[in-house]
């Protein structure tokens, strides 16, 4: 009996969709906060395989989700390429910046990332052993554009202005950075698959700030290159792409990149996406994560509306973005109940 998540990714229409949540291992869970305190800080948690595996398993034990997502971060790849990385409590990530040909020359070649990332592969191996047999294991990486926005600005930015500025002022350096991240991502995801990841997800959280030809060149093209390379090595491993806030560019994204599933944020309606995205294959999403804070009858109604809108094709139930630290775990249980009884 194949795992439900893998059946949906293979294109099967199921009576009840498989369910998991972005950031399901996170600060809204008291058991996560306890393990994170034990690790000391967020990066130590990412690089300590026993503890990273433990926080990955916590939401599976509590809620019985159909999939576990490896606990790590998209910014471990820049760090493995040689960027300095640290997290400022309450503010988010900080990195040494890459904005000149000299900065780029100081980064490591893509094939030298594995020493630094070996603990992540060990976390995947532990999870492949310890997950319940019905739970699928998802690996992931950031998409090149999103990772580049952090490497160029040295931090998260509301509008990705520094990355857009470099793209427009020094296209050669910008493109070379995108290429380096693309190559590293192929090797990183391949290693996760070899360690036991059953599917991988590419997070392009800032895809929505790319317009027109920029979307083609820096969201579509790198995703297509990564997916082609992974399919050549691991033809049976399905791939989920998340070009967040892509809007109408969600339509055709799976065909253009070869992704098996497109993850949707909450800005597109499930009714629209059923007609314009799900017609090409599996979709994932897209409940607004705010419902995990507010709960009540609106949560149930929205979760059931989305489940019904996607009922005619392959669907994985998820949020449109990560669950937030102020969410109530009881609302997660209510969401699962609503989806399974829709
Ligand atoms: O989804 C999961 O449960 C898997 C683990 C995961 C994390 N980050 C753990 C994390 C995944 C898939 C990510 C992806 C990620 N990381 C993205 C893309 C997805 C998205 O959310 O748009 C991005 C942009 C990052 C970079 C990043 N990591 C930021 C901007 C922050 C700080 C913001 C915040 O929420 O504090 C992080 C930290 C981070 N990554 C946390 C977790 C659980 C919180 C850290 C903590 O415990 O203090």
UniProtKB/TrEMBL annotation:
Keywords: Cytoplasm, Decarboxylase, Lyase, Porphyrin biosynthesis. Residues 18-27, 138-154 form the Uroporphyrinogen decarboxylase (URO-D) domain. GO terms for biological process: protoporphyrinogen IX biosynthetic process from glutamate. Its EC number is 4.1.1.37. Gene3D superfamilies: 3.20.20.210. GO terms for molecular function: uroporphyrinogen decarboxylase activity. Homodimer. This is Uroporphyrinogen decarboxylase. It comes from Paracoccus subflavus.
């Amino acid at each position: 009996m194949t795992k439900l998540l893998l059946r949906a990714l293979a294109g099967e229409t199921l009576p009840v969709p498989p369910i998991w949540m972005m950031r399901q291992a996170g600060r809204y869970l008291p058991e996560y906060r306890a393990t994170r305190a034990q690790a000391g800080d967020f990066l130590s948690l990412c690089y300590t395989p026993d503890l990273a595996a433990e926080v990955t398993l916590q939401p599976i034990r509590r809620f019985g989700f159909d999939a576990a997502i490896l606990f790590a971060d998209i910014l471990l790849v820049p760090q493995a390429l040689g960027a300095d990385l640290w997290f400022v409590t309450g503010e988010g990530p900080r990195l040494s910046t890459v904005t000149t040909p000299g900065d780029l020359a100081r980064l490591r070649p893509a094939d030298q990332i594995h020493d630094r990332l070996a603990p992540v592969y060990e976390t995947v191996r532990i999870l492949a052993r310890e997950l319940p047999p019905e739970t699928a294991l998802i690996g992931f990486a950031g998409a090149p554009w999103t990772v580049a926005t952090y490497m160029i600005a040295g931090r998260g930015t509301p509008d990705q202005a520094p990355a857009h500025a470099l793209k427009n002022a020094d296209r050669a350096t910008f493109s070379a950075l995108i290429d380096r991240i693309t190559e590293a991502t192929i090797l990183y995801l391949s290693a996760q698959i070899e360690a036991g990841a059953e599917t991988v997800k590419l997070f392009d959280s800032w895809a929505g700030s790319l317009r027109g030809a920029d979307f083609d060149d820096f969201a579509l093209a790198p995703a297509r290159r990564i997916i082609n390379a992974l399919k050549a090595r691991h033809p049976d491993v399905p791939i989920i792409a998340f070009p967040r806030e892509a809007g109408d560019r969600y339509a055709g994204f799976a065909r253009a990149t070869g992704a098996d599933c497109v993850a949707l944020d909450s800005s597109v309606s499930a009714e629209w996406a059923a007609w314009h995205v799900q017609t090409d294959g599996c979709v994932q999403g897209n409940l607004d994560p705010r419902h995990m804070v507010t709960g009540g009858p609106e949560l149930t109604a929205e979760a059931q509306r989305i489940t019904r809108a996607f009922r005619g094709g392959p669907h994985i139930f998820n949020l449109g973005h990560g669950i937030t630290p102020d969410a109530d775990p009881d609302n997660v249980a209510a969401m699962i109940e609503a989806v399974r009884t829709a």
